[in-house]
Specification:
Blueprint (H helix, E strand, L loop, with lengths): L1 H24 L13 E3 L4 H7 L6 E3 L7 E7 L4 H18 L8 E8 L3 H10 L6 E4 L3 H5 L7 E7 L5 E8 L5 H12 L3
Parallel strand pairs: 3-4, 4-5
Antiparallel strand pairs: 1-2, 3-6, 6-7
C-alpha cells in the first residue's frame, strides 16, 4: 500500500511539474501585461490602412497602430454570440468615429479565430463591419492569447514612448456600445 501511495505521489508531482506550467503559460492576456506579439498583414484596402495610420505593405504589430488605444475583438464567424454582438460593436465604432475628441484616439480591429480570409470577409459583409478584420486561420493568434473563447475583447493602451499594455480584457458580456465605451474611456484614462 505504501508503495502505491509513493508511486501516486510521484505521478502527481510529475504531472504538476509538467502540465501546470504549460497551462499557466497558455493563459489569457491580463490587465497590466503587454499584448502578446501579434503580426498582422497591413490591409490592402487604402481606407483601412489610413484608419489604422499604417503605410506600405508587409506585417505590422498592434502597438504600431496610430492611436492612444486599440480595442481588439477576437471573434469567430461561427460564434452566435459574436454574431449577436456585431451590431453593437459596429455602433461602438460609430460612436468613436463620430466624436471629434475620440476619432483619432481609439481604433477597433477584429481577429477571426480559426477563420480563413474568405470567412472573415463573409462575416464583414454579413454584419456590415466598418473596421478592419483579420483572419487567424491557423489559430496562431488565438494560441498566444490563451485560447480564449469568443467573443473576447481587449483594450490596449499605446503610450507615447511606444510601449503598450493591456488595460482591460473580458470574455463576452458585451452590454452595448455606450457602456463598453465608458469602460474603454476609463481604462485608457480618457475620462
Amino acid at each position: 500500500m505504501r508503495r502505491i501511495l509513493t508511486v501516486l505521489t510521484m505521478i502527481t508531482l510529475l504531472f504538476s511539474i509538467i502540465v501546470f506550467p504549460a497551462l499557466a503559460a497558455n493563459k489569457p492576456p491580463e490587465k497590466g501585461e503587454a499584448l502578446p506579439v501579434i503580426n498582422l498583414p497591413v490591409p490592402r484596402n487604402a481606407e483601412e490602412r489610413n484608419y489604422l495610420g499604417l503605410s506600405g505593405g508587409g506585417l505590422f504589430k498592434i502597438p504600431q497602430i496610430k492611436a492612444h488605444g486599440v480595442i481588439v475583438e477576437l471573434f469567430s464567424m461561427y460564434c452566435p454570440f459574436c454574431q449577436k454582438d456585431a451590431p453593437g460593436v459596429n455602433e461602438l465604432y460609430r460612436l468613436i468615429e463620430n466624436s471629434a475628441v475620440l476619432k483619432n484616439k481609439i481604433k477597433l480591429i477584429g481577429i477571426g479565430v480559426g477563420n480563413s480570409p474568405y470567412e472573415v470577409e463573409v462575416f464583414k459583409k454579413t454584419y456590415d463591419v466598418p473596421f478592419p478584420l483579420f483572419p487567424d486561420k491557423d489559430f496562431v493568434i488565438h494560441k498566444v492569447c490563451g485560447e480564449v473563447r469568443t467573443p473576447y475583447y481587449m483594450v490596449v493602451k499605446i503610450n507615447e514612448d511606444g510601449t503598450h499594455q493591456i488595460v482591460h480584457s473580458q470574455l463576452g458580456n458585451y452590454l452595448g456600445a455606450e457602456p463598453f465605451l465608458e469602460v474603454v474611456l476609463k481604462t485608457l484614462g480618457l475620462k
